[in-house]
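Sample entry follows:

_____
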Amino acid sequence: MRKSTKITGTTLLALLVVIIIIACATWAEDRRGLLTVSFLNVGQGDAIFIDSPSGRQVLIDGGPDASVLRELSRTMPWYDRSIDVMIGTHPDLDHIGGLMDVLDRYRIGTIIQSSVLGSTPAWKTFEKEIEAEKAQVLIAGRGQVIDLGRGAYIEILFPDRTVPRIETNVGCVVARVVYGETSFMLPCDTTDEIEKYLVRLDGPKLKSDVLKAAHHGSKTSSSPIFVGLVDPAYAIFSRGCNNSYGHPHQQTIETFARLGIPTLDTCTEGTIIFISDGERIVRK
């Protein structure tokens, strides 16, 4: 009996130590009213991790494969195995491929996706993974606001209607992250036609501090009128090195250069992180 009691006491002590370590890590992680937006280095694809001032976390897309898990492990606390919101902007593999690995590794609270329907085996597998997760599932639509707490939020700009049969890039989820006076424009793989449509709808309200160049810098996106109205301090190319698509296209590079907008590239710089205190944005 004495031996059994000693083992139980040791076990309880070990558990107490673990709890204290986690509590200390959580305390040390105090966000001090900061919003962190990380453009993850996942090769030829998109993956954006948002850590809000309230602690709510959002992952927008997951790149083409399990590389997203490596980058999340470097960005999230080691003990954190849940993500509040996951957004799959459209069914293409370079955006949802890694989300299947995320669903296997993390507990997801809410899943938001476009109404665009995919037809690939990867999309069908992704849909099965979502069903198995038993998370709340919402279809993205213009006007939706995702509250991140403490004044931070994500607003959905497009699609503005149900678009199940439209081309996947055209129907992807365009979002804008806002915190105080700062903002991030995230136009997925949208086309210049949709960019110009948003210019007509929103005009100067598109202004943002950071712009993720749509479609990895493709020449079919980043129209001068859209980029000019967003007027970011930085533009991000999220892409793989030596990709077969030639992203970013020289035409797009020249658009940003002509408008005097500095560009950053996940290929050459790895994961790119910005921090906002609601008044200004700095690069980490």
